[in-house]
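Hi V.,

Quick status before I head out on leave. The structure for the redesign project is tokenized and pasted below; the design run finished overnight.
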């Protein structure tokens, strides 16, 4: 039986914000991290997943999430909102320190079961997206690719853009999900997919 599908999502709480690796909570439960470019919709996807309106802070302004933000789901799974990458207006120095923090976290976190890599279905893949996916592949970190904001374009545009992104990442359509934080499209598939990493 699946782990995530069994959760009732009634008990979700903010745990802590981590600015340095030494502040990480004990790796005593399975963990799922959410990564993607700044403003892509990471926090919104998390809120949709846990059925909360705004527990994970979202913003129309990019660069809102600046630390690793830990949430505890039903006292059994950690969810981690990662700072967005690739926002030009964030000073280079800050970007570099996020990068060190995120990379250090991804390569050392023993209870990390899966990284949800989120990209915007409306836009072409950016080099930073591919770098992240390649990095996860070569470091053997399991990940799920999610194309979000699907509600913002037509059905035909979805398949067109999806195919372009697939080619860029080198995946088939069955290896990624379409998602919308606004409508809830893709939530069930995401839960199912995540479950295969949590067992
Ligand atoms: N229509 C629509 N809007 C979305 C969707 N996902 C996110 N948004 C909007 O996109 C903006 C950014 O969303 P966030 O969830 O804050 O993005 P983020 O990736 O967490 O941003 P940072 O923390 O700054 O990196 C907000 O205005 C959201 O309302 C979606 O699926 N559909
Ligand atoms: Mg965010």
């Amino acid at each position: 039986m699946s782990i995530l599908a069994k959760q009732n999502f009634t008990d979700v709480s903010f745990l802590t914000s981590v600015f340095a690796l030494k502040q990480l909570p004990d790796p005593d439960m399975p963990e799922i991290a959410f990564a993607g470019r700044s403003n892509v919709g990471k926090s919104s996807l998390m809120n949709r997943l846990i059925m909360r309106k705004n527990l994970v802070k979202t913003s129309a302004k990019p660069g809102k999430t600046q630390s690793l933000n830990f949430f505890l789901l039903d006292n059994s799974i950690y969810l981690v909102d990662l700072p967005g990458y690739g926002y030009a207006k964030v000073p280079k120095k800050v970007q570099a320190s996020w990068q060190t923090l995120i990379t250090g976290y991804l390569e050392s976190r023993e209870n990390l079961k899966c990284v949800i890599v989120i990209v915007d279905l409306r836009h072409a893949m950016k080099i930073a997206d591919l770098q992240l996916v390649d990095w996860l592949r070569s470091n053997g970190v399991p990940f799920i690719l999610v194309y979000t904001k699907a509600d913002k374009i037509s059905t035909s545009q979805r398949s067109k853009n999806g195919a372009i992104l697939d080619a860029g990442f080198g995946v088939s359509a069955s290896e990624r999900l379409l998602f919308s934080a606004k409508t809830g499209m893709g939530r069930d598939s995401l839960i199912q997919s995540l479950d295969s990493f949590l067992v």
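Above is the designed sequence. The first helix runs from residue 42 to 49.

G. will cover questions while I'm gone.

Best,
W.
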